[in-house]
Design goal:
alpha/beta, single chain, three-stranded antiparallel beta sheet, 8 strands, five-stranded mixed beta sheet, 6 helices
């Protein structure tokens, strides 16, 4: 089992079902300026989940900070997808993606971009999801990818988060 602690949430998956993208040798090999999600998980057959965890987000009313946040998360999703796919098709032959994540049949796979925000109220999630969907509209149309935004309670319900660490 692989345990990942991020944004005061604990994720736990079978080793072959998760690839730690952030800080991986693959990520390091492409140099600076490439943003990535925390990890990619293959929890269901023919589906890859690109998961980003945050401890907070700006409110939609704060336009500058909100859209900066949306742009940052969008870049992480899109860069991670591109880096994953480039490795999957052999553009980085020294760095393979192990387990079920690397063995995914990309011609049949569905892709989910999942943002989990610890401590967020359910009512606050929809504007973030709407903004992310609009920001990566072209990718969603081309690849039929899906955006999911949830808080730690929903993530726990869907077995993405095992535990939440208490706030300091």
């Amino acid at each position: 089992m692989k345990t990942i602690t991020e944004s005061d949430m604990v994720f736990e998956f079978e080793d072959e079902r998760v690839f730690l993208m952030e800080g991986s040798e693959l990520h390091a090999s492409v140099g600076t300026g490439i943003k990535t999600v925390e990890f990619i998980a293959s929890l269901e057959e023919s589906r890859l989940d690109f998961v980003e965890a945050k401890s907070s987000s700006p409110q939609p009313g704060n336009q500058k900070d909100f859209w900066g946040f949306i742009n940052e998360i969008s870049e992480k999703f899109l860069h991670s997808f591109a880096l994953y796919l480039s490795a999957a098709i052999g553009r980085h032959p020294k760095y393979s993606i192990p387990g079920k994540v690397g063995a995914s049949d990309n011609s049949q796979a569905s892709y989910k971009f999942i943002l989990i925000i610890n401590g967020h109220q359910i009512d606050w999630l929809s504007p973030i999801k709407d903004a992310l969907e609009a920001n990566i509209f072209a990718h969603r149309q081309i690849w039929k990818s899906e955006v999911v935004v949830m808080n730690e309670k929903l993530a726990k319900k869907y077995h993405l988060v095992r535990d939440v660490k208490p706030a300091h």
